[in-house]
Amino acid sequence: MRSKNRLLKGKDLLWLRIISFCIMGVLLVAAGISVWLFVRHTAAQDETAVVFDEGITEQEQEESARELLHEDMLSGILLAGQGVCDALRARPEEVSIPVESAGDFATLEAVKIETGGTISISVTSPGLLASDDKYYYLFEEKIWQEEFSPDAEPLSRAYKDVALNFRTDLLRGSSSSRLFSRFYVAVKKDGAYHAVSKARYPDNPEALAVYNYSGKNHGSKKGLMIDPLQSSTNEWDDLGIHYCTYNFPLAHILGPTSNGAYPTINYEYHGRNWQFNGAHIHQYDYLFSILTSKGIDITGIILDDASTSAYPAFTHPAARSGSTAPYYMFNGVTADGVEALGAVATFLASRYSGGGHGLVHDWIIANEINARKEWNYMPAGTGIEAYTDAYAKAFRVFYNAIRSVNSGAGVYICLDQQWDRNKSNNPDYDARDVLDIFAVNVKENGDMDWGLAFHPYSCPLTQTAFWKSNSQVTASVDSSFITMKNIGIVTDYLHQDRFLNRNGEVRSVILSEQGFSSTAGQDLQAAAIAYAYKIAAANPDIDYFIYARETDHPVEIAQNLALGINNTGGGHKKSYNVYKHVDRVDGGDVISFALGIIGISGWP
To answer: Which CATH architecture is the domain 99-195 placed in?
Structure first.
């Protein structure tokens, strides 16, 4: 906060300016009379000069004209001078504070992309900040640049005012595109530029979108982590699912292919050619077309497994070695990283937004990002602020690219059930801490309509009866873990003003992964699935519920996690029929057995 005793008002300077303008007015009077005499002399020499009245002598005509002209000119000059004085009195006072303390003096109220590829930046300030000249300057910095560079050249300048507007080109489609840039206002002081506002990214990448497809228009929240081997059966219709998730590991979709039937897909982005594996992309096209034809909303999960491949640019420089984790932190901190992420995001959003290959409504960027060691690798010792800032940069690239193609797409961060462990020996971060820091980061740099994809697995994972008492799963906002028993803590937490979106609404929450093992019995698993779904259905802040998974996975079975509603051979467990009926009016008799197992008299 600026101290009032450090603000020096410019009233003396203002009055000097008023006196100067009055002197200028007198000079203008003299100049006006001289101009009139010149005009009169010229007219006297013109044979076609007009005679005012034949009964009045030429001398009388001249004296009358001189009097009238003199009075009109003087009156006009005085009125103009008065207007100038009034304007000067109304003009905000100049404020003089050290530029080192003026980093938030001006505010970028909006950074809007307009039709035609122009960016409009509206700026307000509490006064006119004293500097070397009368201008505010607009600067651009790329997302990978760490801080304001006084050596950069301004994009434009504008006369200082308490409210003004800058305009600059978006440069869409070029390597200099400003879709991922942030903007500053600066002044020139002692010959150098100094930022006097916080940075802000474009507010509305969706203004560029060709498509506007949004999901979540179903009467049910039932979703499933699907088994693609079931695409040729009627199982998804039989289950009546409305949502599903599917992974996009980058190493799987990038690069050329020798498959003649499905050749390499060449995609140009910002003048550079990117290659996608045509055979693998065809598999997505086929599966997504089937799902879309069935009215099932698809959520794509974009994952960076490319660290050890031929595509290091996708991975944060600090995360490219030293780990056996399956996925890594995306790279939004270098120029080549931002180009790489932008290319993939734009390709995927374009291909699966009305291009005849199926429709992906929502996108999740990385998996369980608070699990630094296991699922979104960065080296140990990375501070949580730096870690979350790195993720936020990459997330913004994905968000701006996706929303610039499909304005209705949801874009989500992903957190696991480690809510508030606060243990020094925990190699990961608490989900609540990452959520808090991410929300502040986004607000300060220009808000986005991000959503939360949460994974409320049981604690421990093998505990199918999640409703049982557990000291680490409580009704407190400081609970160590969040499961389906206390999921309301997360949705209530997001009702705080600091988390609301730009329309003052609670952000979208999806439960994109949770499952319960049948190792302790199929009845117990079926009861847990029914109860978990009913809890989600009764919570108005949860948009949909993805059960993980359709078919048991051998690796998980080895960990006593037989999560599927089908066994590995494709046979149905009891939970299959329960999940089929859990959201149906006629399903009460099918799922009522679970009430006794859980120990409740009715559903939420």
So the answer is: Sandwich (2.60)
